[in-house]
Design brief:
It is a single chain. The chain is an alpha/beta fold. It has 27 helices and 22 strands. Helix 7 runs parallel beside helix 8, helix 11 crosses helix 13 and helix 22 packs parallel to helix 23. It is globular and about 75 Å long.
């Protein structure tokens, strides 16, 4: 019985790749040093899977930054601004595309489907000259082979690649990206022929866009592409892998009638409807790669239930043709539970990270083929599941009752937004184009040291509080010097915008090394929500009121919203997500009301990840948006008109959910906008009426570049062309935590100067 892993995390069990990348970018280590760390990580992963008995082991799932960018490099689709002159693409061009450089900005980054991973969006058009410019897929296959491991090389399929791209600057927005298929397939053929020559017997094409709502024209592109590749693929076994949702009936039909394809991979964790399609009809003699082990969460698999699913599938496709697999790449889960020495033993028994999921896949494959040596593994699993079901730590009656009581109301504030903005302006007395920042200020090495020492009990609470107060004071003084209108305290006491709150809420558990890649070298450590959520004590009131006492200017209270806490955590899978979200909303509501009582008049409730949780299929989106937006309103429905509620949202296409954003009914919304090049503003150009305050980011904080006053003023002018002067705010597009003060000070100085310049111009125009 065969087993397969769709993909594996690249960062390493202790974020080895992150540190190697950052050291290389800072010029502290060489390209050779970086390549050595990468090669060691790859070899240990291949050997680990081989040792666990996995038959179909993936290669080319490693990346120095992002797998879509790797495909762009493979196809030689480098935007002209990077000055690449052909030849094999090296680190310089590759990392310039990913991160920008001193003279040109990075390519756009956006969410990978509905995950918290970001990919670098290809910029394509009719004039792109494609060429085979990165031999990474073949090199990694050969590298594994030299170690004695025969792998399945993975490529992002040609159709998904084009559907995930965008027209480059200067190319018509309506440019049909799929018209480039004929230009990229010759390069895919070259790669396939080299892989064949190197001895590959299987090749995996990831085509996750097949789970989206695709029209017949797009589905035909799949048929055309794989028909065109058919002769190149002869002699190879070909797996087309899908994940993140079930495959719609039309797409299933198109996929399973592809000639030259040997096997199909499906996500049975988030795609239970695909089971019915397979029961209806599955092509004779083809392999089914059954994704029954969840690649996106950290809960131990219900092995008995998975075995039941697999046995049903075996009856349809036959024993020889069924392969046990993960539902998605394990990129989206933490690396190895072995490194969690501080996690409570009971909770630990309920979990499985990537390394454990590899073992689960193998155990299921063995059990299915009748091996008896898996009995102990299965009974330990059953015991852990039973303990989780009955554990008193999971259930809190009071929380359950409070959440149930929410059903009757839609929790709106008493008056409309324009009335509230008037009341707030009387109290806050802000200029037009008020300036603010999103929340965090740079986290210096010194600051991280203080937090680390406090956590390790090396310094006393008094010493810690004193150090943090000094840092807040420094940030407040800096903002006053820069003449920013609405201040923040800089969040020096916070490690992470979700973890910080989770640590103070009940129902959450934390890992030490449960890191997951977000983009490039940036990793996040999602909390684990295992039980009912409540807030035992105020969480931020002390720090926010301390900061407000240092200045006469308004100080923003800073909270993370319930939907973002939910979407950026590993969420319990034993109740619907919305129930957990309502519980978190009630906890944040208590905090908002306590901040208001403490004299904080501006409170920001970040919903950076609201868009991220949007289901991939249109039919499921309205329900999600309804409960997500409702959860946000629950948090602040009880405050006075004079309290200004801000929210902040990051990377994403908002255009399709703008009406839900308006329905959140925040007083001011700040939005990450600078990398997605005004896409956001087009919504307002198209006549959407927006009456609340809005601050589309005026510069990109994800890049070390310092924008000039003129550049920022130009951006603000573009915004003023579509937004009313009296609702526009001026701010960076995200928090400043990851930047250095040497970048932040000049950038903010230029931002304030740009706002003042425009105030003067607007006043004289009047």
């Amino acid at each position: 019985m065969a087993s397969h892993i769709v993909g594996y995390p690249r960062m390493g069990p202790k974020r080895e790749l992150k540190f190697a990348l950052e050291s290389f970018w800072d010029g502290k280590s060489s390209a050779e040093d970086l390549k050595k760390v990468a090669a060691d990580l790859r070899s240990s992963i291949w050997k680990q899977m081989a040792g666990a008995g996995i038959k179909y082991i993936p290669s080319n799932t490693f990346s120095y930054y992002d797998q879509v960018l790797d495909t762009t490099a493979m196809l030689g689709a480098v935007p002209p601004r990077y000055g690449w002159n052909g030849g094999e693409i090296g680190f310089e061009t590759y990392f310039s595309m990913a991160r920008g450089n001193a003279s040109v900005p990075a390519m756009e980054m956006t969410k990978w489907f509905d995950t918290n991973y970001h990919f670098i969006v290809p910029e394509l058009g009719p004039d792109v000259k494609f060429s085979y410019a990165s031999h990474k897929a073949v090199d990694e296959y050969k590298e594994a082979k030299a170690l004695g491991v025969d792998t399945v090389p993975i490529l992002i399929g040609p159709v998904s690649y084009l559907l995930l791209s965008k027209p480059a600057k200067g190319v018509e927005k309506t440019f049909p990206l799929l018209s480039l298929l004929g230009k990229i397939l010759p390069i895919y053929k070259e790669v396939i022929s080299e892989l064949k020559g190197a001895g590959a017997s299987w090749i995996q094409f990831d085509e996750p866009t097949l789970v989206m709502d695709l029209d017949s024209h797009k589905l035909k592109a799949f048929t055309d592409a794989y028909t065109e590749l058919e002769s190149s693929l002869s002699g190879l076994n070909v797996l087309v892998e899908t994940y993140f949702a079930d495959v719609p009936a039309e797409a299933y039909k198109a996929l399973t009638s592809l000639k030259g394809v040997t096997g199909y991979g499906f996500d049975f964790v988030r795609g239970s409807n695909t089971l019915d399609l397979i029961k209806g009809k599955f092509p004779k003699g083809k392999y089914l790669f059954a994704g029954v082990v969840d690649g996106r969460n950290i809960w131990a698999n219900d092995l008995a239930a998975s075995l039941g699913t697999l046995k049903a599938l075996e009856g349809i496709v036959g024993k020889e043709k069924l392969v046990v697999s993960t539902s998605t790449s394990l990129l989206h889960t933490a690396v190895d539970l072995v490194n969690e020495t501080k996690l409570d033993e009971e909770i630990k028994s309920w979990l499985a990270f990537a390394a454990q999921k590899v073992l689960e896949v193998n155990a299921l494959a063995k059990a299915l083929s009748g091996h008896k040596d898996e009995v102990a593994f299965f009974s330990a699993n059953a015991a852990a599941l039973a303990s989780r079901k009955s554990s008193p730590r999971v259930t809190n009656e009071d929380v359950q009752k409070a959440a149930a009581a929410l059903k009757g109301s839609d929790h709106r504030r008493a008056t409309n937004v324009s009335t509230r903005l008037d009341a707030q302006q009387k109290k806050l007395n802000l200029p037009i184009l008020p300036t603010t920042t999103i929340g965090s200020f740079p986290q210096t090495i010194e600051l991280r040291r203080v937090r680390r020492e406090y956590k390790a009990k090396k310094i006393s609470e008094d010493e810690y509080v004193k150090a943090i107060k000094e840092e807040i004071n420094k940030v407040v003084k800096l903002q006053e010097e820069l003449d920013i209108d609405v201040l923040v305290h800089g969040e020096p006491e916070r490690n992470d915008m979700v973890e910080y709150f989770g640590e103070q809420l009940s129902g959450f558990a934390f890992t030490v090394n449960g890191w997951v890649q977000s983009y490039g070298s940036r990793c996040v450590k999602p909390p684990i929500i295992y039980g009912d959520v409540s807030r035992p004590n105020p969480m931020t009131v002390f720090w926010s009121s301390t900061a407000q006492s240092m200045t006469a200017r308004p100080m923003k209270g800073m909270l993370t919203g319930p939907v973002t806490i939910l979407n950026w955590s590993f969420v319990r899978n034993d109740q619907p997500r919305f129930e957990t979200c309502y519980q978190i909303a009630l906890a944040i509501k208590d905090e908002v009301e306590d901040l208001e009582k403490a004299g904080i008049n501006v409170i920001q409730i970040d919903e950076a990840a609201l868009r991220e949780g949007l289901p991939l299929r249109k039919s499921e989106q309205a329900f999600y948006l309804d409960w997500a937006v409702h959860s946000f309103r629950i948090t602040n429905c009880g405050v006075h008109d004079t309290t200004q509620i801000h929210t902040h949202m990051c990377y994403s296409n908002f255009n399709d959910i703008i009406h839900s954003i308006i329905d959140m009914d925040a007083d001011v919304i700040t939005i990450e906008n600078s990398r997605s090049d005004e896409k956001l503003l087009s919504v307002f150009r198209e006549g959407v009426k927006y009456g609340a305050g809005i601050g589309p980011g005026v510069y990109d904080i994800h890049s070390p570049r310092i924008p000039s006053t003129e550049e920022i003023a130009d951006r603000i002018n573009k915004m003023l062309a579509v937004l009313e002067t009296n609702i526009l705010w001026v701010n960076p597009d995200c928090g400043l935590k990851t930047r250095k003060y040497a970048e932040v000070k000049p950038a903010l100085k230029n931002m304030v100067a740009a706002a003042k310049l425009l105030r003067t111009q607007l006043a004289s125009a009047k």
